[in-house]
Amino acid sequence: xxxxxxxxxxxxxxxxxxxxxxxxxxxxxxxxxxxxxxxxxxxxxxxxxxxxxxxxxxxxxxxxxxxxxxxxxxxxxxxxxxxxxxxxxxxxxxxxxxxxxxxxxxxxxxxxxxxxxxxxxxxxxxxxxxxxxxxxxxxxxxxxxxxxxxxxxxxxxxxxxxxxxxxxxxxxxxxxxxxxxxxxxxxxxxxxxxxxxxxxxxxxxxxxxxxxxxxxxxxxxxxxxxxxxxxxxxxxxxxxxxxxxxxxxxxxxxxxxxxxxxxxxxxxxxxxxxxxxxxxxxxxxxxxxxxxxxxxxxxxxxxxxxxxxxxxxxxxxxxxxxxxxxxxxxxxxxxxxxxxxxxxxxxxxxxxxxxxxxxxxxxxxxxxxxxxxxxxxxxxxxxxxxxxxxxxxxxxxxxxxxxxxxxxxxxxxxxxxxxxxxxxxxxxxxxxxxxxxxxxxxxxxxxxxxxxxxxxxxxxxxxxxxxxxxxxxxxxxxxxx
Amino acid sequence: xxxxxxxxxxxxxxxxxxxxxxxxxxxxxxxxxxxxxxxxxxxxxxxxxxxxxxxxxxxxxxxxxxxxxxxxxxxxxxxxxxxxxxxxxxxxxxxxxxxxxxxxxxxxxxxxxxxxxxxxxxxxxxxxxxxxxxxxxxxxxxxxxxxxxxxxxxxxxxxxxxxxxxxxxxxxxxxxxxxxxxxxxxxxxxxxxxxxxxxxxxxxxxxxxxxx
Lengths: 481, 212
What we know:
The complex is a heterodimer of chains A (481) and B (212). Chain A has 481 residues and is mainly alpha-helical.
């Protein structure tokens, strides 16, 4: 029952925010709902509730291993949101705050959905809730990015619905069947019709892969992350994409039990490697530091996919990386948001010298870039090392080589641009902005905390989380391949 | 299996070709609307005939056949734009591709193992060819409204496939999907309106500021 509160609290807060009259105080709904949500999520992480096999919604092992990460990220983004929306006081924030809270509620629903149809409804709802967030800046470019997000994301999500129906059709038997509960599908296992399972997996991989932003379905990502406010980018890169990944994990389990695990692993791994390498190449070329973050997100979705395709140990490492990536990306997007504001409405391509204008945000950003390119002691280093080890242990030497190559190129690309943006002489026009711009603690502490969390998670991974990830691996892949 | 079923699905497949051949936005919207009307009545032929099925059919007909087309018509009137669909893929190639998609759908439906009770119906063939036609319109038309019509037709195809499961899945899932679709079209409509204001056009070829 408490697990339902994870969905209801944000939705009620969304209704409250929509009805709240004062623009100035409305943003406080975000940290309030975020704090309650995070407290509930951590409480449930410590004391997992029982989940019946026939429950449509439940805080099961998968939700337990993933949901607290999303919840923590939301809380810190929400804390950042209050000063951010105060700076942006000239704009009404009713739609923005309401959509953010709706997004949190729908993400919680999608992570806890144990029914394939319900998962689709929640993910599609989450996609729609992000649309008003993307064009908060109301520039023509923001609308262009939103349109592309809607069309590409909409098509992807439509294909995943077709895949959902395919899996449902695979489960039809003379006795009835057609039950889309994951537990029911898993129980049918090899009795599922194999051609339909295979076709369903491909469509779901393309559909939810679009949502994750795996190459070659990633085209919406640079535009959307480039134009969206930093905190929205953080919540998409560490939240919504993660939710789609969790959905695919559940589907992969069903496909594996139906006897097509090898096919699922191969296809997912291929997309993962392609994402890593393609993102690395784009990272070497881009000159826009927010689009750079989008390509980095494509790369990390590739890393998650490779981990998930490697079986038991890899899956454990992928869950670790999901936390590491979400939290580190949060720090990067929030500090990048501060830097974006310093540049104002100007073109971001080729901007330099931000260290002189927003020194603290730039420092955080550069530290975040090192964190996300897997430099110790940040968490991504440890999680990626484990994925690499899993690749070698399972005899995927070539995959490991491609993985390392992608990481190296991405490191060159990210650090090149990060230093280009931070160093150099700022243009005169920016200096006048700098005089007016004040980096308040409110917009610096959340990214700093996220970076601190990233170090803590890497160096002192709590046993509680290790145990939660092991439980999730056990429930998803009972027999290590 | 009702003899009416295949007739109606055949009609929907014909509407795919009409949509692909439409050079004017109003006729494209109309063919998507009529297709929605036709498909909306199918649950009555397939389901148990309980009041839930009737309610679901009424909702589908009113959303797919009436509400969404009316919204698109309004958007079209508000845009004051010329009503040519601006094909990126010409009409004749579109039609040929649509026809090829139909043949491919028949082949695909033959290759996949259908259950005995669905073997004689056009449901799967109709679903695949409608999905293909929708994707073709989505890719091959430049006007935002035409792309939305493509998206609608794509959704119609998926809905057609979903009817195979109508006895097995609870209608609440289908209702949730229909609700999501409605909200999606509303959101798309709002964004189209903003794009019209900002860019003074609904031609998506003008949306080229964001690129590497």
